From TrEMBL, chain A:
Tagged with keyword Transport: yes
Protein name: Importin N-terminal domain-containing protein
Keyword Cytoplasm applies: yes
Subcellular location: Cytoplasm
Organism: Amborella trichopoda
PROSITE patterns cross-referenced by the UniProt entry: IMPORTIN_B_NT (PS50166)
GO BP terms: protein import into nucleus
Residues of the Importin N-terminal domain: 23-103
Molecular function GO labels: nuclear import signal receptor activity; nuclear localization sequence binding; small GTPase binding
Family statement drawn from the similarity comment of this UniProt entry: Belongs to the importin beta family. Importin beta-1 subfamily.
Pfam families: HEAT_EZ, IBN_N, TPR_IMB1
Main localization, broad class: cytoplasm
C-alpha cells in the first residue's frame, strides 16, 4: 500500500494529464473508502526520509487540506471530521508529524510544521494534545543536550504557525512563557545558526499577540525589545527584515509600552532607511507609519482632550521625533524608480516615505509645514526631474492635516506654479502635480476656506489647464480626472442656486466623454476615472444645468446600446465590455437620480423609462448567470422616479430580481438587489403583491442559508418591513415563516456583546433590520380585520425591546427604531394590547429616556409613541 | 507573516462605485423613513417644502363679524364630513384664498343644542364652562400661528409659543411639527381659551377619545410657554378651560364657579367620542339666562325680537328646511310667491315663528307656523339646524333648566358615584 501511495502521489504531479487524472481519482477513492488509513498513509509518506521529496510534500499538502478550508462551512465540517476520528490513528499521525520535524529535508520539515499547527488549531481549544507544547519545547535542547539546528529551526517554525492558528486564550500563561523563552533564546545573537535565528524571529512575530502579560513586565519587555533590536543589526538581510516586522507589530500592539525605547528605535530605523536594502528600509518606514496610525486614532477618539482617566494616552512620539523624522522621509522622496507611475502594484522607498509623510502631517498638523516648505522651495525648480517631483510630492503630502489657515496662503501662492507645472517635460512631475491639485481641491474646498483658493478670476484658467491636461498620457490624465472630481465636489452644496461650474458644464462634460473614449483609456484606469468624475460633476451640478444633464440621457443610452450590439467577443473583450456596461449603468443611475429629484426635469426620465429599462434588461441578459450590480442600482433609482408605473416592467424584470437575490457569491449584488426590492415596494405599493410569494420565498431561503454573507441579513429584515408596508394585511400568510426568523435573529442580537466594535456595529445593524421589519408589519396591518394575527407576537416583540433596552448598547438609529416599534405596536393593536403594555414596566422608562434624548428625531418619535401608548393604555 | 498592506498615499483613489452604493442605500433608508412617518401620520418630508400658509392668505380681508352673527355661525353650518386626517392639514396649508377658507370652515366639531338630558350624564360626560367669544381653529406651523374663524377666514396671524408657532430658536421646528387647537378667542382679556386639541406636534388626535384629548391638552400645553403672559414672540395668551366630570359637583362648578372669562353656556363632551368634524350629538351646548347673555337669539341690532327667527334653506320644490341631513322641512312656499320675490333654490331665508309655533308629533316636526321676513344675512353659509331652532323655541316657552340637569344626575346616581371627586384639568 505504502509503495503504491508514493507512486500515486508522484503521478498526481505528472505533466501527462491522463496519468494525473487517474492518480487524482485513485487518491479520491482511497480518501472516500478509508479516511483514517488514507490520512495515516499521508503522514507516513511525509515522515519517511527514504521517499522522494515531491511525494512527501504533496502528501503533507493533502493532509493539510483535509484539516482546513477557506470556506467557513467546509472548515467547520473538516474540524468535526477530524475530532471524530479514531484517537489511536490520530496519535499515530501526530507522532509521525512530530518525527518529521527532525527530517533532513527542509521541505518535509516545513510542511510538517504547518500540518502540526493546523491540528493544534483544532485540538488545543478542545483540550486535546496536551503534551504538544512540551514535546515541541523538548526539541529545543537545553544546557546539557545540544539539539541539531535543523530540528530547532523546524520547531520554531512550528511554534510560529501554531501561534497563528491558536487563539491566545487557549494557551496557559505558563505555556506562553515557555514558548516565548524558547523563541527569544532562538533569536539571541548567541545562537550561531542564522536559519534558527530567522525562524525564531518569524515565530516571535506571530507570538507577539500572546505576550500581553510579558509586555506588562519591565524586565521581560526589555529583554524581548533588546533581542528584537539586535535582530535588526544582524548580518542576514532576512533576519533584519523579520526583526523590523516584529517592531512594526509591536508598535501597534504595544504602543503604550514604547516610550523608553523610542530613541534607540529611531536611530535604528534612520540607519536602515538611509543605508539598508529596500525590503528592510520599507519595514523601517512602516514602523513610523504605524505609530502615526496609532496616534491619529487616539487623537481622533479623544479629540486631543485627555482627562486624567483616559486609559489610552497619546505619547506624541511623532511630534517629538518630527525634526529628525521629516528630513529622513524627505530624503526618501528623491529615490523614485523610473516609470513607477505606470506600475499599478509598485511599492518602493519613495512611495513608502511619501505615504509616511502624509500620515505624519495628519498626526501633527501645522507643525510639519515649516519643516517641509524649505525642501519644497529648494527643489521645485531644479533641473533634475527627481527634485521637482519630490518637492511636489512633499507639498501634496502635507495638504491633509495642517489647518486651512496655515495652508491657504501657501497654496494661493503655489497654485499658479502648479498649473504651469502641468506642462512640465517630465511625466512623473505632471502626474504628481495633478495629484497635488486634486488634494488642494479635496482638502481646501472653496466653500470651506475664508480666502478661497479658486476664485472667479482664476477658475477659467484652472479649468482650461485641467481640460487640456486630460489629453496627456493616461496616468497623468487619470490624475487630472481625480482633480476635477474634487473640484466639482467643492461646489456640491450650491443647491438650487447658481454654481460657478455651470458656465463650464458643457466643456467639462465633453472633455470627460472624449477622455473616456480615448483609445488608450484602458490604461491607468483612465476610462473608469473619467466616467466616475462625470458622475460627480453631474451630482454636484446645480439646477440651472439640469437641461444639459438631460441631454446626456440619449448619449449614454446610445453608448450602452452599442455595447450590447457586438456579442462575439473573446473573454478578455467580454470582461472589458462588462466593465464598460457597469460604468454606463453607473452614469445613468446618477443621472436618473439627479433629474428624477427635480420636478422640472423628472419628465425626461419618465419619457425614456421604457427605453432605459429595455437596455438594463439586455445588460442582464448578456451576462447570463449573474446580474449586474450597477444595472440593478440604476433600476432601483428608476423605480423610485416612475412610482406605480414601474408595474409594467415587473414581468420582464422579475427573473433578474430573483437571480440577484440568489447571488450568494457576490454578496454585494445580493445586498443591492434586496435594497431594490424595497425601492420597488415603495414604488408599486400593493401592486407588488403578485411577486411577493417568489420574493419572500427567496428571502427566507437566504436567511436560512449558512453561505450568505452576514452583512446581507439586516437589509433582508428591513425588506420584510418594506414588503409588509406595501401589501398590508396580505402579509399575513408570511407571518408564520417571517416571525420565527425575526424571533431567532432577535434572540441572537439581544445577547450581550462583549466583543469588538465591529461585532457591536453588526449587532446594531441586525437589530435595526429586525425593528424595521416589525415596524413595517405592524404599520401594514393597521386598521385591518386581521390585526389579531399579530397579538400572538406582541409579547415577543415587547420582550425583544425590553432586552435591547436593558443592554444599554443601542446606537441612536436602533433607539429610534425601537421606540418607534413600541408606538406601531400600540397604534395597530390598540386596546387589545393595553394589558400587555401596562404590564411592560420598561416601556415608560424607555419612552422617558427617549424624550430626553439629544437627538431630535428620537425625541420626536418618542413624543408620538408616548401619545399613542397613553391613548391605548388609558382608553 | 507579511505585514498589513499599506495603501500608497498617491494611489488612494476614490471609489465612485462605493459612493453610488452608499447613496443608493441612503436614498432607500430615507424613503423607508418617509413611509414609516407617513404610516405613523407624522408629516412626510415630501411636504416639507410647502410654503407657509400665510403667504397669500394674509391678503384676505377680515370681515367684521358681529357677535350675534358668530353665534349663529357657530351653530348653523352643517359640516359635511370631509377627510380630516392629520396629513391633510399640511396639504390644506397649500390651499389659497377661498379654497383655504372653505377647507378650514369644515374642520370644527360642532355641538348639538341640548334639548333633552342624555342618559348617564354623570358617567359618560364632561362639562365645561364655555367662554364667550369667537370660536376658531388655531394652527401653528412653519414658525407662525394663524387663527381662523368658523367660516375659515383669518382672525389673527401672530407669533406664539406653541410648537413651531414662532420663528425663534427652541420653538421653530420642521414643517410637519404643526399644532391645531380648537379655541374660543375671548375679546375682553385677549386670550385664546383652548377647548380641544386636534393635532399636537404633527400627531393627529382626531381618532382619540375626548378623555384622552383633554388629558393630553392639559399635560402638553403647559409644557410650552403658550400659557405665559404675552411677549414679543408670543402675542396672545392661551389658557386652559377647566373640565369637570359631569356629576353634581362638577356641574355646579362649571355652572356657578368663577371663571376669568365671561361664560356663554356650558359644553358637554361624551368621554368616548372622537373628534368629529361637523355637527355631532356627542358634544352638546346648553345655556340659560344665568350663564349666558346670549340665551335668546338677537337680531343684527342686538335686540331680542318678539318672535323667534330662524334661517331656513329653500329647496327645489319650494320647501324650506333646516341644515340637517336629511333636512327637516318646516313649510312650503308656493310658486307665485317665489317668482314674486325672485327666490332661487339654495337661498337662505329668514322666517319668524308665529303663534302657531312648532307642532311636534312623535318626536318629529309635524307643522310649523313660519312667516317669511326676507333673505338672510349674506355672511350666513347655511341654514339653522333643527336642533337649534328647537332649543330656541323651547327657551322661549319651557326651557331645559339647570334644575332639570341636576335632577337627572341625582336620579341616576347611586351611592358609589357620590364619592367621585371633582376633577379639574386646569
Amino acid at each position: 500500500m505504502a509503495m503504491e501511495v508514493t507512486q500515486i502521489l508522484l503521478n498526481a504531479q505528472s505533466v501527462d494529464g491522463k496519468i494525473r487524472k487517474h492518480a487524482e481519482e485513485s487518491l479520491k477513492q482511497f480518501h472516500d473508502q478509508n479516511l483514517p488509513g488514507f490520512l495515516f498513509s499521508l503522514s507516513a509518506e511525509l515522515g519517511n526520509n527514504d521517499k522522494p521529496v515531491e511525494s512527501r510534500k504533496l502528501a503533507g499538502l493533502i493532509l493539510k487540506n483535509a484539516l482546513d478550508a477557506k470556506e467557513q462551512l467546509k472548515k467547520a465540517e473538516l474540524v468535526q471530521r477530524w475530532l471524530s476520528l479514531d484517537t489511536t490513528v490520530k496519535a499515530q499521525i501526530k507522532a509521525c508529524l512530530l518525527q518529521t520535524l527532525s527530517s533532513s529535508s527542509s521541505d518535509a520539515r516545513s510542511t510538517a510544521s504547518q500540518v502540526i499547527a493546523k491540528i493544534a488549531g483544532i485540538e488545543l481549544p478542545h483540550d486535546q494534545w496536551p503534551d504538544l507544547i512540551r514535546s515541541l519545547l523538548s526539541n529545543m535542547g537545553g544546557p546539557q543536550v545540544q539539539s541539531p539546528p535543523h530540528l530547532k529551526q523546524a520547531t520554531l517554525e512550528t511554534l510560529g504557525y501554531l501561534c497563528e492558528e491558536v487563539p491566545p486564550e487557549v494557551l496557559t500563561q505558563e505555556q506562553v512563557n515557555s514558548v516565548l523563552t524558547a523563541v527569544v533564546q532562538g533569536m539571541n545573537s548567541s545562537e550561531g545558526n542564522n536559519e534558527v535565528r530567522l525562524a525564531a524571529t518569524r515565530a516571535l512575530y506571530n507570538a507577539l499577540g500572546f505576550a500581553q502579560t510579558n509586555f506588562e513586565n519591565d524586565m521581560e519587555r526589555d529583554y524581548i525589545m533588546r533581542v528584537v533590536c539586535e535582530g535588526t543589526q544582524s548580518s542576514d538581510m532576512k533576519i533584519r527584515q523579520a526583526a523590523f516586522e516584529c517592531l512594526v507589530s509591536i508598535s501597534s500592539t504595544y504602543y503604550d509600552k514604547l516610550a523608553s525605547y523610542m530613541q534607540d528605535v529611531f536611530n535604528i530605523t534612520a540607519k536602515a532607511v538611509k543605508e539598508d536594502e529596500e525590503p528592510v528600509a520599507l519595514q523601517a518606514i512602516e514602523f513610523w507609519s504605524t505609530i502615526c496610525d496609532e496616534e491619529i486614532e487616539i487623537l481622533e477618539e479623544y479629540g486631543g482632550d485627555f482627562s486624567g482617566d483616559s486609559d489610552v494616552p497619546c505619547y506624541y512620539f511623532i511630534k517629538q521625533a518630527l525634526p529628525a523624522l521629516v528630513p529622513m522621509l524627505l530624503e526618501t522622496l528623491l529615490k523614485q524608480d523610473e516609470d513607477y507611475d505606470q506600475d499599478e502594484g509598485a511599492w518602493n522607498l519613495a512611495m513608502a516615505g511619501g505615504t509616511c509623510l502624509g500620515l505624519v502631517a495628519r498626526t501633527v498638523g501645522d507643525d510639519i509645514v515649516p519643516l517641509v516648505m524649505p525642501f519644497v522651495e529648494e527643489n521645485i525648480t531644479k533641473p533634475d526631474w527627481r527634485c521637482r517631483e519630490a518637492a511636489t510630492y512633499a507639498f501634496g503630502s502635507i495638504l491633509e492635516g495642517p489647518s486651512p489657515d496655515k495652508l491657504t496662503p501657501l497654496v494661493n501662492r503655489a497654485l499658479g506654479f502648479m498649473l504651469n507645472a502641468m506642462k512640465d517635460e517630465n511625466n512623473h512631475v505632471k502626474d504628481t502635480t495633478a495629484w497635488t491639485l486634486g488634494r488642494i481641491f479635496e482638502f481646501l474646498p472653496s466653500a470651506s476656506v475664508g480666502e478661497p483658493i479658486i476664485t472667479q478670476a482664476n477658475f477659467p484658467h484652472t479649468l482650461s489647464v485641467l481640460i487640456e491636461s486630460m489629453k496627456d498620457a493616461p496616468n497623468v490624465a487619470e490624475k487630472v480626472c481625480g482633480a476635477l472630481y474634487f473640484l466639482a465636489q467643492g461646489f456640491e452644496d450650491m443647491g438650487s442656486g447658481s454654481s460657478p461650474l455651470s458656465p463650464f458644464f458643457q466643456d467639462i462634460v465633453q472633455a470627460l466623454i472624449a477622455t473616456a473614449h480615448r483609445d488608450d483609456a484602458g490604461e491607468s484606469r483612465l476610462r473608469t476615472s473619467a466616467y466616475e468624475t462625470l458622475n460627480e460633476v453631474v451630482r454636484c451640478s446645480s439646477e440651472e444645468t439640469a437641461p444639459l444633464v438631460a441631454q446626456l440621457v440619449p448619449v449614454f443610452l446610445m453608448e450602452l446600446g452599442q455595447t450590447l450590439e457586438n456579442q462575439r467577443l473573446s473573454s478578455e473583450e467580454r470582461e472589458k465590455q462588462n466593465e464598460l456596461q457597469g460604468l454606463l449603468c453607473g452614469c445613468l443611475q446618477v443621472i436618473i437620480q439627479k433629474l428624477g429629484s427635480l420636478e422640472s426635469t423628472k419628465f425626461v426620465i419618465l419619457q425614456c423609462a421604457d427605453q432605459m429599462m429595455a437596455l438594463f434588461l439586455r445588460v442582464f441578459a448578456c451576462r447570463n448567470a449573474t446580474v449586474h450590480e450597477e444595472a440593478m442600482l440604476a433600476i432601483g433609482a428608476l423605480a423610485y422616479v416612475t412610482g406605480p408605473d414601474f408595474a409594467k416592467y415587473m414581468k420582464d424584470f422579475y427573473p433578474y430580481l430573483e437571480m440577484g437575490l440568489q447571488n450568494f457569491e457576490e454578496y454585494q449584488v445580493c445586498s443591492i438587489t434586496v435594497g431594490v426590492v424595497g425601492d420597488i415596494c415603495r414604488a408599486l405599493d400593493d401592486k407588488i403583491l403578485p411577486f411577493c410569494d417568489g420574493i419572500m420565498t427567496q428571502l427566507l431561503k437566504n436567511l436560512s442559508s449558512n453561505q450568505l454573507h452576514r452583512s446581507v441579513k439586516p437589509p433582508i429584515f428591513s425588506c420584510f418591513g418594506d414588503i409588509a408596508l406595501a401589501i398590508g394585511e396580505n402579509f399575513d400568510k408570511y407571518l408564520i415563516y417571517a416571525m420565527p426568523m425575526l424571533q431567532s435573529a432577535a434572540e441572537v442580537s439581544s445577547q450581550p456583546t462583549s466583543a469588538d466594535d465591529e461585532t457591536i456595529e453588526y449587532t446594531n445593524q441586525l437589530r435595526n433590520g429586525i425593528l424595521e421589519a416589525y415596524s413595517g408589519i405592524f404599520q401594514g396591518f393597521k386598521n385591518s380585520p386581521k390585526t389579531q394575527a399579530l397579538m400572538t407576537f406582541a409579547p415577543l416583540v415587547l420582550h425583544f425591546l425590553e432586552s435591547i433596552y436593558s443592554e444599554k448598547d443601542m446606537d441612536d438609529t436602533v433607539t429610534k427604531a425601537a421606540v418607534g416599534v413600541l408606538g406601531d405596536l400600540a397604534d395597530t393593536l390598540g386596546s387589545s394590547a393595553a394589558p400587555l403594555l401596562r404590564q411592560s414596566v420598561f416601556c415608560k422608562d424607555f419612552v422617558e429616556e427617549c424624550l430626553s434624548s439629544h437627538d431630535h428625531l428620537i425625541k420626536e418619535t418618542a413624543e408620538w409613541v408616548q401619545m399613542t401608548v397613553s391613548r391605548v393604555v388609558s382608553g | 507573516m507579511a505585514p498589513m498592506e499599506r495603501q500608497p498615499l498617491k494611489r488612494c483613489r476614490i471609489s465612485d462605485q462605493q459612493k453610488r452604493r452608499e447613496l443608493a442605500l441612503r436614498r432607500q433608508s430615507v424613503n423607508r423613513r418617509d413611509s414609516q412617518l407617513h404610516a405613523r401620520r407624522l408629516a412626510s418630508a415630501l411636504l416639507d417644502n410647502s410654503p407657509p400658509p400665510q403667504e397669500t392668505l394674509t391678503l384676505i380681508s377680515q370681515p367684521e363679524i358681529q357677535q350675534e352673527e358668530i353665534e349663529e355661525l357657530v351653530v348653523e353650518e352643517s359640516g359635511e364630513v370631509s377627510s380630516h386626517k392629520g396629513i391633510d392639514v399640511l396639504e390644506a396649508s397649500k390651499l389659497r384664498g377661498s379654497k383655504a377658507r372653505h377647507w378650514f370652515s369644515k374642520q370644527l366639531m360642532l355641538p348639538e343644542w341640548m334639548i333633552d338630558v342624555p342618559s348617564r350624564l354623570s358617567h359618560d360626560w364632561y362639562v365645561l364652562p364655555r367662554p364667550a367669544g369667537k370660536r376658531c381653529l388655531v394652527v401653528s406651523s412653519n414658525g407662525t400661528t394663524v387663527s381662523r374663524l368658523r367660516n375659515g377666514s383669518i382672525l389673527h396671524h401672530f407669533p406664539s409659543s406653541l410648537p413651531n408657532g414662532a420663528r425663534i430658536k427652541d420653538i421653530a421646528g420642521p414643517a410637519h411639527m404643526y399644532c391645531i387647537l380648537d379655541c374660543i378667542f375671548h375679546e375682553p382679556d385677549q386670550t385664546y381659551y383652548v377647548i380641544d386639541m386636534i393635532c399636537w406636534k404633527g400627531y393627529s388626535l382626531y381618532d382619540c377619545s375626548s378623555e384622552f384629548r383633554f388629558f393630553w391638552v392639559n399635560s402638553k400645553l403647559t409644557e410650552t410657554g403658550a400659557c405665559d403672559t404675552p411677549s414679543f414672540y408670543h402675542k396672545y395668551r392661551f389658557s386652559l378651560v377647566p373640565v369637570y366630570h359631569c356629576d353634581q359637583m362638577g356641574l355646579q362648578a362649571a355652572y356657578e364657579g368663577n371663571s376669568p372669562f365671561s361664560k356663554d353656556g356650558l359644553l358637554f363632551y361624551n368621554k368616548h367620542a372622537h373628534y368629529h368634524t361637523g355637527i355631532t350629538p356627542l358634544a352638546l351646548v346648553w345655556k340659560d339666562m344665568n350663564c349666558s347673555q346670549y340665551f335668546l337669539d338677537t337680531d343684527s341690532n342686538g335686540v331680542i325680537p318678539a318672535q323667534q327667527q330662524v334661517v331656513l334653506e329653500l329647496k327645489e320644490d319650494g320647501k324650506v328646511g333646516s341644515s340637517d341631513d336629511p333636512s327637516v322641512v318646516f313649510s312650503c312656499l308656493d310658486r307665485d310667491f317665489l317668482q314674486q320675490k325672485n327666490l332661487q333654490p339654495g337661498a337662505l331665508l329668514r322666517f319668524a315663528i308665529g303663534d302657531g309655533g312648532l307642532n311636534i308629533f312623535d318626536g318629529k316636526l309635524d307643522m310649523a307656523d313660519t312667516n317669511y321676513i326676507g333673505k338672510a344675512n349674506r355672511a350666513r353659509v347655511s341654514a339653522d339646524s333643527y336642533n337649534k331652532v328647537l332649543f330656541q323655541y323651547l327657551a322661549r316657552r319651557s326651557p331645559l333648566r339647570i334644575e332639570d340637569l341636576v335632577a337627572s344626575i341625582n336620579s341616576s346616581q347611586d351611592g358609589m358615584d357620590v364619592v367621585m371627586e371633582v376633577s379639574t384639568y386646569s
